[in-house]
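Reopening this ticket.

The earlier resolution said the output was attached, but the attachment link was broken on my side. Pasting everything inline this time so it's all in one place.
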Amino acid sequence: MAGGEDSLRSLLRAANALLQQRRYHAALAVIKGFRNGAVYGAKIRAPHALVMTFLFKSGSFREKLKSIAQATYAHSRNLAYFVFTYKGLLAAQSRLQGKKIPFHSFLAACIGGWLVFGDNNPINSQIIMYLLSRILFGLSRLAVQKGYIPQPRQDPFPLLAALVWGTVLWLFEYHRDTLQPSLQSSMTYLYEDSEVWHDMSDFLIYNKRTDSK
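Inline output:
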């Protein structure tokens, strides 16, 4: 028993010593990036899938749990693969050129995005739309910082909020098929289901009646 514990301690010391070696840092960062991508993807997707599935999807309890597990796995796997690919390509480019330059990040991410997120499915679509909105905000702020556009005299956010909500409700009412399915489900719940009721049960307690009255 003691011999086994000693061997385990020796192995742990050797592993910790390896982790401290600077020459292996790039390779180890790729591995940890894979780990962090998998964990973060699961943390992000699991609660979202849980809420959306039980709010809007029909089916048995087992089918709903399976759907949640599949969505969580897909998000976790894709993010892990992307981080692994991105960091690996970044390290390779830096090693080949002897230094890191901004274009390396762009090229590595483009290749990773093509390989990992290129399949047009609901999970990838949601991730890309999430990123796109933040990219637009980031590029707008960068344009102001670089002086490409003048600093607004007033906060433009109220106008942006008005335009975003005006556009999305117009699309929902008249071109619904252009919106992402989960957004359609959310808006149907908010703006259409609130138009229908029969008595107090489906007016205040439930969204829709489940009996045959």
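Reporter confirms the inline version is readable. The radius of gyration is 24 Å. The chain has a mean pLDDT of 89.
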